[in-house]
User: Which sequence fits this backbone?
């Protein structure tokens, strides 16, 4: 069942899907309808999954409240299939983990890891795609690269 993001518990689990390109406003609006419909029908073992999402120009984030019960593997697979189908429909790869999104002069930029290694400095701000729950997302979404696994590439 879809729940407004603001009403989701801070411990709500999050899955982050990073786009390979900017998602335009028309696409965001269309994708939002698809995800909200999905959330309203999403179940795990015939029980509704209390869920929410956020979409911006570069990310789709799915949030699940597991307070009452944990979501099953089959239900997680359904969400992955949703993101894959959105990717096919809009020609966006949401599963390339070798792209790095970072903030450069208040503009989000995307580079393949191989090129990011050439421009990385300790003051670079990156998107933390490893956030675990809503609270972590709210507190640690954009972080200094020095606090992430990418730190090892700083010269």
Assistant:
């Amino acid at each position: 069942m879809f729940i407004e993001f603001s009403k989701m518990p801070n411990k709500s689990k999050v899955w982050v899907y990073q786009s390979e390109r900017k998602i335009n406003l028309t696409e965001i609006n269309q994708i939002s309808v698809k995800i909200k419909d999905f959330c309203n029908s999403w179940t795990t073992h015939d029980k509704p999954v209390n869920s929410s999402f956020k979409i911006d120009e570069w990310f789709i984030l799915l949030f699940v409240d597991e307070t009452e019960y944990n979501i099953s593997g089959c239900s997680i697979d359904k969400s992955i299939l949703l993101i894959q189908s959105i990717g096919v429909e809009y020609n966006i790869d949401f599963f390339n983990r070798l792209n790095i999104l970072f903030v450069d002069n208040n503009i989000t930029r995307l580079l393949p890891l191989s090129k990011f290694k050439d421009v990385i400095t300790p003051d670079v701000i990156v998107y933390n795609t490893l956030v675990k729950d809503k609270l972590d997302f709210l507190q640690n979404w954009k972080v200094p690269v020095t606090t992430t696994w990418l730190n090892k590439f700083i010269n």
Q: What stands out?
A: The CA atoms of residues 16 and 132 lie 9 Å apart. Strands lie at 13-18, 43-44, 47-48, 51-55, 59-64, 99-104, 107-112, 125-127, 142-144. The chain has two domains: 5-90, 99-153. The radius of gyration is 16 Å.
